[in-house]
Amino acid sequence: MNHQADRVKIVFYTDPLCCWSWAFQTHWQRFIEDFQNEITYSYCLGGMIADWKKFNDPFNSVSRPAQMGPIWMEARHKTGAAINENIWIDNPPASSYPGCIAVKTAALQSFQASEIFLKAAWKAVMADSLDISKKDVLLKIAYNVGVHHPEFLDFDQFSDDYDNDKSRDAFRSDLRQVAYNKIGRFPTMTFTKGGKGIIMTGYRPYEALVDAFNQIQMISSEVTSL
Description:
Elements (H helix, E strand, L loop, with lengths): L7 E7 L4 H5 L1 H11 L3 E7 L23 H11 L7 H4 L6 H11 L3 H16 L8 H14 L6 H7 L3 H16 L7 E6 L2 E6 L4 H20 L1
Parallel strand pairs: 1-2
Antiparallel strand pairs: 1-3, 3-4
Helix pairs in contact: 5-6, 5-9, 6-7
C-alpha cells in the first residue's frame, strides 16, 4: 500500500444538481475500487445554481428550469443512468445551494457521511424526482442515511448543524476553491502528484479515468527523475 504522499490526489468538482456527475458514478465507483490503494480523493461542491434569476449557461443554452430538462434527457439517453427529466417541468429545484450545504453539513461528521449523503441526494433528485432545494427533503435524506449508516452520520447532529455558520463556511470554502481554479463545468476532476497536475472535464468513460491516472503518474515520475 502506498503512503499518502505517494498517491495521486484527485479533486472531484461537482454539484448535487449535476446530472452528468450522477451518470458518471458507475465509472467513478469502479475506478475508486480498482485504484483505492493508489489515490486519495475529495469532493468540492460547485454551487451550480444559486438561483434562477442569476443562472445562465450559454454553453447549453439554459437560463430557466424548463430548459434543463433536455440536458437531463440527453444524459439519460447517452449513459443509461436513472434520470427523470420531468422534474424540471413538474417540481423544479430553485437552487443547488441547499443541497451543497447539506453535503458539507454531513462532512462535518465524516468524509464517508458526506460521500454517502451526496450519492443519496443525487438519487433523490435524479431518479426519485424530489426537490432537494427544500430543507424537509434534505432532512429526510439525512435521516435515511443515518438509519442505514449510523456509524458515519448522526441525524440529530446533522439537523443541528444544517445551514449553520460551520456548514455555510465549509460551502463558501468550496466556492472559493472553484473560483480560484476557474472551474466552469461539472463534473471536473483534477489529478495531481509531485507538484504536477492535469484536468479532466465532463462525463467520461472509465478508461478516461485510467488514462488520466497513468498520465499523471508518468508526468510525476519524469519530474522525479530529473
